[in-house]
């Protein structure tokens, strides 16, 4: 007998309307150029939140699109999982604010912290809750307001990131479709290669922290680049092995959108040609854990992923954390 799967019933996305191009950074007085950014990263522009646009607001908007497409109303949602590195406040979670906005009165809601890998981690948790019978309908969202935590005076990081949200509704599969395999891994010994040193309980916010900009993102770009290629390549292998598939069986790869060179190296390792790899980093930059659900939602909407398609999702982020998943749509 075929085992049950957790399947994607629908997805949605929401990004702020304000667009910041590479050229805009020079106009803001940052010593950089479109050529430098585009050649090294593939990024041309990104969306950034305007006044009053919040992580909760973007997340709720993405969730509403997914719910409407899935024909699921708020009262049917059992669990809301929000992946974010940019919660609106530190206590309580942003997920409970989303629950309140959606009116998902019988849901449990919590934030999940795994940086860029958080949406795939959240899907794996949601899958577990569905398969063990705890939940029937799980809303897995990733929403990031990276513009609130990047150092706008640091040209080596601020040009990379963007804001946005994506969401999916998971339910038990009725047609043998859904998550075929998933893989997650972390290495906390490398945490300080990409982190925010202050602003937490160890170094709470203070005037000194603000002056040193210790509450903003710090990154060792080269080390992160190398680890990303290594880990995403390994993660791709693990999910393919788990599903007993090879790169040849994949109809579309949806990688984390951090840098087109990282994406190309991962695809090459997995034996997946670039015409089967969805890339939108040029238009959104790195939206951290929201990058995969935004890309997936676009690919589904454009018909680039159809019923029966086999999709490999693969990611890497601060922690370090990395993860992958093979899904049959
Ligand atoms: N414009 C112009 N010059 C710049 C800029 C910029 N925006 N940023 C850095 N530089 C300069 C540096 O100051 C340095 O100058 P120097 O030689 O005079 O000291 C020079 O460019 C080279 O800097 P490097 O950091 O060595 O440049 P590199 O070729 O490694 O590219 C980059 C930097 C694009 C950040 C690359 O390392 C990278 O993409 N790393 C991965 C980072 C990433 O994606 N992180 C996201 C989070 S993790 C994830 O999502 C996968």
Helices and strands in order:
Elements: E1 6-14, E2 19-21, H1 22-27, H2 34-41, E3 45-47, H3 55-70, E4 79-83, H4 94-102, E5 108-112, H5 118-131, E6 137-145, H6 155-158, E7 163-172, E8 178-186, E9 194-195, H7 207-212, E10 218-219, H8 221-242, E11 252-255, H9 260-270, H10 281-284, H11 291-301, E12 310-317, E13 321-328
Parallel strand pairs: 4-5, 4-6, 11-12
Antiparallel strand pairs: 1-7, 2-3, 6-7, 8-13, 9-10, 12-13
This protein binds acetyl coenzyme *A (ACO).
Description of the structure:
It is a single chain. The protein has 329 residues and is an alpha/beta fold. It has 2 domains: 5-175, Thiolase/Chalcone synthase (Peroxisomal Thiolase, Chain A, domain 1); 180-328, Thiolase/Chalcone synthase (Peroxisomal Thiolase, Chain A, domain 1, 3-Layer(aba) Sandwich), CATH 3.40.47.10. It has 11 helices and 13 strands. The chain has helices spanning 22-27, 34-41, 55-70, 94-102, 118-131, 155-158, 207-212, 221-242, 260-270, 281-284, 291-301; strands at 6-14, 19-21, 45-47, 79-83, 108-112, 137-145, 163-172, 178-186, 194-195, 218-219, 252-255, 310-317, 321-328. The strands form 4 sheets. Strands 1-7-6-4-5 form a 5-stranded mixed beta sheet, with helices on both faces. A 4-stranded mixed beta sheet has the order 8-13-12-11, with helices on both faces. Helix 4 links the parallel strand 4 and strand 5 (108-112). Helix 3 (55-70) crosses helix 4 and helix 8 runs parallel beside helix 9. The longest helix has 22 residues, at 221-242. The protein starts with 5 loop residues before the first strand and ends with a strand. The chain binds acetyl coenzyme *A. Acetyl coenzyme *A is lined by residues 32, 36-37, 40-41, 116, 155-156, 159-160, 194, 219, 221-222, 224-225, 228, 256, 258-259, 286, 316-317.
């Amino acid at each position: 007998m075929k085992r049950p799967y957790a399947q994607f019933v629908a997805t949605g996305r929401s990004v702020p309307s304000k667009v910041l191009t590479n050229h805009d950074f020079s106009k803001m007085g940052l010593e950089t150029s479109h050529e430098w950014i585009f050649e090294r990263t593939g990024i041309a522009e990104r969306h950034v939140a305007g006044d009053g646009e919040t992580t909760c607001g973007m997340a709720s908007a993405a969730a509403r699109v997914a719910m409407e497409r899935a024909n699921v109303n708020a009262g049917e949602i059992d669990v809301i999982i929000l992946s974010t590195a940019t919660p609106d406040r530190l206590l309580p979670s942003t997920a409970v604010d989303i629950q309140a906005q959606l009116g998902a009165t019988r849901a449990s809601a919590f934030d999940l912290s795994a940086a860029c890998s958080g949406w795939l981690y959240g899907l794996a948790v949601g899958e577990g809750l569905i398969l063990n019978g705890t939940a029937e309908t799980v809303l897995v969202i990733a929403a990031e307001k990276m513009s609130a935590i990047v150092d706008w005076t640091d040209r080596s990081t601020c040009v990379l990131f963007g804001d946005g949200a994506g969401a999916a509704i998971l339910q038990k599969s009725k047609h043998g479709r859904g998550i075929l395999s998933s893989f997650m891994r972390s290495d906390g010994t490398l945490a300080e290669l990409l982190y925010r040193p202050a602003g937490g309980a160890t170094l709470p916010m203070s005037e000194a922290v603000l002056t040193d900009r210790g509450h903003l993102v710090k990154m060792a770009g080269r080390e992160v680049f190398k680890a990303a290629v290594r880990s995403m390549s390994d993660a791709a292998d693990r999910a393919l092995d788990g599903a007993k598939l090879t790169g040849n069986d994949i109809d579309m790869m949806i990688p984390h959108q951090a840098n087109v060179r990282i994406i190309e190296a991962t695809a090459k390792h997995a034996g997946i040609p670039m015409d089967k790899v969805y890339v939108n980093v040029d238009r959104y930059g790195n939206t951290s854990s929201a990058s995969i659900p935004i890309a997936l939602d676009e690919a589904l909407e454009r018909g680039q992923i159809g019923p029966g398609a086999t999709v490999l999702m693969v990611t890497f982020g601060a922690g370090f954390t990395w993860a992958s998943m093979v899904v049959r749509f």
